[in-house]
Design brief:
ten-stranded mixed β-sheet, alpha/beta, two-stranded antiparallel sheet, about 15% strand, 18 helices
């Protein structure tokens, strides 16, 4: 549904032919504005420990937009006003990714690292998407074990994996079955437009990361005339939602692994993992086999071969991966070792323990009906992809709760508009690999892409203060003018992850199984 406003139907027959003469067009009655779009947010200070200028409010939006007068849910929103009222351009909505990541706390974090010429032009608007954090949070009552999505394929455990997937779907249906079908990207886009309306804005600008790029793309498809300056950072390919986006974690890791073996071989005297890429690869797979027989212990943590493979994201940073594998090798040889492992996301204290996971499955299962329903399809695909992409292929293609989920309320959104938006991408991004970012750029036919060649990490703009993309993004947000053509710049050395990445708790650094 592209709009909630429909032209009035005119009765057939003679009356229809007389109406144009009898009733001037200017007097035709407009469709009434829904009450939820006429709200006035009651702004208040978000937190005594936060600046007084950081304000929060709660608005009500329909659970089901097909029934706008029906049940309502809360939507937690926040704002930091533009620093220059005379230079103010409008509002900039923010989303950190997920699905399931909260954004109501973002404005002061983003504002800290945003340059003056951008910050003075926008009210920064945060929001917790529906079902998340303080926006009528949902829960499926899942245990920690049930929230574990890192499930490699093994013939002996596949039956248990199917039971896990079916059990998650059943628990979610039993506990929140009336709500979960409406926690979709399309409805979150409708919520964004409700925020626009209650703020009294004609258009919105937007900065979205990872999953937030898909949310922004869907908004631009549904509301092109209300889409202003959109920056979509670390792109989700709309053609791959959502099983294909999980599978790209496997296919995208193959070139990253090859790059790592070459990088590490060139530093053989330091890491002692092999003098050629083939030797480094042999060392790694030997450690995986060794850990499958007898787990390797690092700093009190046991690693099976599957546990090692589950650390797929680390191979997008050759230095981090080399240190990790060197530590595994030292421990396997009887020494003591420590390794710096990827961080995991912290949960918001206000929400149920499984809130992020519940919303994640609601969105990825509810956005599209393309998920296979036959468990045997997942088995075949996992076996095939473990052979194709041995690092992670079986993890990506194994059974998921979506095989047993309720059928989606709406069809998936076809993204193919020509709105002028800016997409941003690191070449070596673990969660939304380069092929995914390019897919988003292709789908948004009027977009320009800024690629940080050699750039590492998930999240680019404001995440690395030294990233070569920042100047192009700042110029676009300041002037509204896209580059004349796509831009490729060179990022030199490891990213300086002391920008927004340091402050952003909900989603970054990303967990292995999130966007």
């Amino acid at each position: 549904m592209r709009s909630q406003r429909f032209a009035p139907l005119i009765a057939a027959g003679v009356l229809a032919s007389l109406l144009p003469a009898l009733v001037p067009a200017a007097q035709a009655s407009a469709a009434p504005v829904p009450q939820y779009l006429q709200q006035k947010p009651a702004w208040h200070r978000c937190d005594p420990e936060q600046p007084a200028a950081f304000q929060c409010a709660t608005i009500k939006v329909p659970l089901d937009y097909r029934k706008p007068a029906g049940r309502k849910i809360d939507l937690s929103i926040s704002r930091l006003k533009a620093t220059s009222p005379t230079k103010r351009h409008g509002v900039l909505l923010l989303n950190p990714g997920g699905p399931g990541g909260g954004g109501a706390d973002l404005p002061p974090m983003v504002g800290e690292f945003m340059p003056k010429q951008v910050r003075e032009r926008y009210d920064l608007i945060g929001f917790d998407p529906r079902g998340v954090g303080r926006s009528s949070p949902v829960s499926c009552g899942l245990t920690d074990a049930e929230q574990n999505t890192e499930r490699p394929y093994n013939a002996a455990t596949f039956k248990a994996d199917v039971s896990w997937a079916r059990g998650v779907a059943r628990k979610c249906q039993a506990k929140a079955g009336a709500v979960l079908p409406h926690l979709t990207t399309r409805n979150t886009a409708r919520d964004m437009d409700a925020i626009r309306a209650v703020l009294g804005e004609r258009k919105i600008s937007y900065l979205g990361y990872s999953y937030g790029t898909y949310l922004g793309a869907v908004y631009s498809q549904m509301y092109p005339h209300r889409t202003d300056r959109f920056v979509l950072d670390s792109g989700v390919d709309p053609q791959r939602i959502w099983r294909g986006m999980m599978q790209v974690w496997a296919s995208g890791s193959a070139p990253a692994f090859t790059r790592w073996t070459k990088w590490t071989a060139e530093r053989a005297s330091h890491y002692r993992l092999g003098r050629t890429p083939a030797a480094v690869s042999t060392t790694f797979w030997g450690l995986v086999a060794r850990a499958d027989r007898d787990p390797i212990v690092i700093d009190g943590q046991k690693f099976t071969g599957d546990d090692i493979r589950a650390h797929r994201p680390i191979f997008f940073s050759p230095k981090d991966a080399a240190e990790f594998v060197a530590a595994l090798k030292a421990a396997a040889e009887g020494g003591t070792a420590k390794a710096r492992l990827p961080e995991t996301a912290r949960r918001a204290v206000e929400a149920p323990e499984d809130n992020t996971t519940a919303v994640f499955w609601a969105v990825v299962c509810g956005d599209t009906g393309a998920w296979p329903r036959d468990p045997e399809q997942y088995r075949r695909d996992a076996v095939r992809d473990k052979a194709r992409y041995p690092l992670y292929g079986d993890f990506a293609s194994n059974i998921k709760p979506c095989a047993f989920w309720q059928k989606p309320v709406e069809a998936a959104t076809r993204v193919d508009n020509r709105k002028g938006v800016l997409t941003v991408q690191n070449e070596w991004d673990s969660q939304t690999p380069l092929s995914s970012g390019r897919g988003l750029h292709r789908a948004l036919k009027g977009s320009r892409m800024v690629l940080a060649a050699g750039g590492e990490g998930h999240g680019v703009y404001l995440f690395d203060p030294a990233s070569c993309v920042n100047g192009t993004v700042n110029a676009y947000l300041t002037t509204g003018k896209l580059p004349a053509k796509d831009v490729t710049c060179r990022s030199v050395g490891a990213p300086k992850r002391d920008g927004l990445a340091r402050e952003l708790p909900p989603r970054f650094p990303a967990e292995a199984g999130r966007f």
